[in-house]
Design a protein that fits this description.
By secondary structure, the chain is mostly beta strands. The chain is built from one helix and three strands; from the N terminus they run αβββ. A three-stranded antiparallel β-sheet has the order 1-2-3, with no helix packed on it. The protein starts with 11 loop residues before the first helix and ends with a strand.
Length: 63
């Protein structure tokens, strides 16, 4: 389950927690097959503004 929400960080909530809440986005990769558009992969990118850390996680979907 991917619950991306928005690309915004936590807002005020980000200042109230000890662990940094990153800016996060999910990029959907779609393929057009004979049955229509199918999700083939997702890239989840997270940016931690305090540390400058950037992470990328790819998930592949098999049909």
């Amino acid at each position: 389950l991917i619950d991306a929400g928005t690309t915004g960080a936590a807002g005020v909530r980000g200042l109230q927690v000890h662990q940094e809440v990153p800016y996060t986005m999910v990029l959907l990769h779609m393929d057009q097959e004979h049955r229509g558009w199918m999700l083939s992969a997702t890239d989840t990118l997270s940016f931690f503004s305090r540390t400058g850390k950037l992470s990328l996680e790819r998930r592949l979907f098999v049909h």
